[in-house]
Specification:
The complex is a heterodimer.
Chain A lengths: L3 E4 L2 E5 L4 E7 L6 E7 L6 E7 L4 E4 L2 E6 L4 E6 L8 E7 L9 E2 L3 E6 L1
Chain B lengths: L4 E3 L2 E4 L5 E6 L6 E7 L6 E7 L2 E5 L7 E4 L6 E5 L8 E8 L7 E2 L3 E5 L1
Parallel strand pairs in B: 2-11
Antiparallel strand pairs in B: 1-3, 3-8, 4-5, 4-9, 5-6, 7-8, 9-10, 9-11
Classes of the chains: A mainly beta, B mainly beta.
Chain lengths: 113, 113
């Protein structure tokens, strides 16, 4: 069945360093890839997304890359800050054949001051 | 608050009881999604509505689960004969047809004792 694998499960970085989270997906029909940030006890919030017709997208300190051939996509956070500490989820959605978004298991990011 | 609203926020119930959760999406959003999230995992897709039509259901949604969106606005998720394995956070999200960004509610945390 459809699956999204996310690595690493935990990531600890020093403030100011970069953080990279990687995901792979199995459903070749997936063509929309959102990333969500979830702070403890709060709702998931979309931080960036990318569609399959784009290879890279950047929004300030956050960037996402997509390799559709390899079915890989990654989240890059530069100049990390303590408030970036949270759980990050990648997801894959087939927009044409339904909207069953499949989420990765999450990456818990710790940014040490 | 114009975001997605879910009620109740917390529900504790005895095994075997029925429970019903409500989701009020963002007012102009015609797509509505239900997800289940257990500790340390990403949200798992349960079902999705476009207006009042339930267009897709996950295999996770057993016969004890039923969801409705009678007027294409709010939605309810009912779990009959609850089991301890149903304990989880139940998240609702909504989006527009033309824009794929989904906004999540704060969830209903169900504990079955």
């Amino acid at each position: 069945g459809e699956n999204v694998e996310q690595h690493p499960s935990t990531l600890s970085v020093q403030e100011g360093d970069s953080a990279v989270i990687k995901c792979t997906y199995s459903d070749s029909a997936s063509n929309y890839f959102p990333w969500y940030k979830q702070e403890l006890g709060k709702r998931p919030q979309l931080i960036i997304d990318i569609r399959s017709n784009v290879g890279e997208k950047k929004d300030q300190r956050i960037a996402v890359t997509l390799n559709k051939t390899a079915k890989h996509f990654s989240l890059h956070i530069t100049e990390t800050q303590p408030e970036d500490s949270a759980v990050y989820f990648c997801a894959a959605t087939p927009l044409g054949g339904g909207f069953k978004t499949i989420f990765g298991a999450g990456t818990r990011l710790f940014v040490k001051a | 608050d114009t975001g997605v609203s879910q009620n109740p926020r917390h529900k504790i119930t005895k095994r075997g009881q029925n429970v019903t959760f409500r989701c009020d999406p963002i007012s102009e959003h015609n797509r509505l999604y239900w997800y289940r999230q257990t500790l340390g995992q990403g949200p798992e897709f349960l079902t999705y509505f476009q207006n009042e039509a339930q267009l897709e259901k996950s295999r996770l949604l057993s016969d004890r689960f039923s969801a409705e969106r009678p007027k294409g606005s709010f939605s309810t998720l009912e779990i009959q004969r609850t089991e301890q394995g149903d304990s989880a956070m139940y998240l609702c999200a909504s989006s527009l047809v033309a824009v794929f960004e989904a906004f999540f509610g704060q969830g209903t945390r169900l504990t079955v004792v």
